[in-house]
Amino acid sequence: MTTDNPTPLLIRPTQLAERLGVGRRTLYDWLRDPDPAHPIPRPLKIGRVTAWRTDEIEAWLDQLADRSRAA
Predict the structure, then answer these.
(1) What's the total number of domains in the chain?
(2) Which of 22, 41, 49, 61 could form a disulfide with 26 if both were Cys (CB 3.0 to 4.6 A apart)?
(3) What pTM was computed for the model?
(4) Is residue 4 part of a domain?
(5) In this predicted model, what pLDDT tens digit does every residue of 2-60 receive, in sequence order?
(6) How many Cβ atoms from other residues are within 10 Å of residue 27's Cβ?
(7) How far apart are the first and last CA of the chain?
């Protein structure tokens, strides 16, 4: 029996902030005043829960990495 840990489909603000090494407030600042070239994806609101789709965050991070390598 294998114990694979599948990637979660959604990531909550606290988890995302920790992964990026920023505060939760910074995430919301980025949403309010986005980088025009690579804005952070919009989160989903499910009732009172806010979360981002993991695949959208991965794609956004890939774009940022590509931009960083090109600079």
Answers:
(1) 1
(2) 22
(3) 0.81
(4) no
(5) 556 677 899 999 999 999 999 999 999 999 999 888 899 999 999 999 999 999 999 99
(6) 19
(7) 46
